[in-house]
Amino acid sequence: MSYNLSDSYKDDILGKIEDYGTKNNRVADVMNLDMKESGVQRAVDYYSQKVRGYNDISFKYDAISNGSTRGELLPDRSGIKIYDAALEVNGQKDATSLMATIDHEHNHFQFNDKWIAEAKRHNFNDFSQRMIDGKIYRGSGAAFVEASNYNLGVSQGSQFNYSKNVIKYLETERDGNLTWQSKIIIQGF
Fold it and tell me: Which residues on neighbouring strands pair with residue 72, listed in sequence order?
């Protein structure tokens, strides 16, 4: 004889675990459980809606690999896609990598207009991006926007308990997009 839990009962139990995890700063643990029991979309919804309150745009997990792209704000700003690459950093599975990607893409949604205006104010006018051999090459304006976003991500990482591995990844990405001029503007050096 075997017993199966109904989907609504399972959903109710996971909801209670999510509430407990949010209150007790166990967000990454809850996300790992959500991914195991219900899939990545539930973990995305939990972090974006319950933990961060990002209810102003929808997040959709897309179980594809889009090169090294971890996520993207759709060009028409109608939603955000999260890809498989967001589930790990430096070859290691890490729920906080998913958290960082959700925050990063929402930061684009929320702050891109401000960052673009600031880039233009400092004559960083090239907003082109191209991929060559799996690496993204950004023009000066696009690099300024990315460096600004990764710089914000580093501080969010400390606040929301991203793993050290994820924070190091964010610092590396920020530094890879900084020019000496943008470093002065973004970090005040």
Answer: 81
pLDDT digits (tens, 9 = 90+) for 31-49: 999 999 999 999 999 999 9
Place of tokens 């600031």: 118
- Tell me the CB-side half-sphere exposure of residue 51, using CA atoms within 13 A: 29
Query: Can you tell me which residue has the tokens 């929301």?
Result: 160
Strand, helix or coil for residue 186: helix
Entry field: residues in the chain: 189
79 token code pair: 């939603």
Assigned token pair, 151 = 């710089």
DSSP 3-state of 154 = helix
Q: What is the largest CA-CA distance in the chain?
A: 71
pLDDT band at 9 (very low <50, low <70, confident <90, very high): confident
3-class DSSP state for residue 73?
Answer: strand
Give the whole-angstrom CA distance, residue 145 versus residue 141: 6
Q: Residue 2 has which token pair?
A: 């075997």
Helix segments in the chain, DSSP class H: 7-23, 27-37, 40-45, 95-121, 140-159, 164-177, 180-187
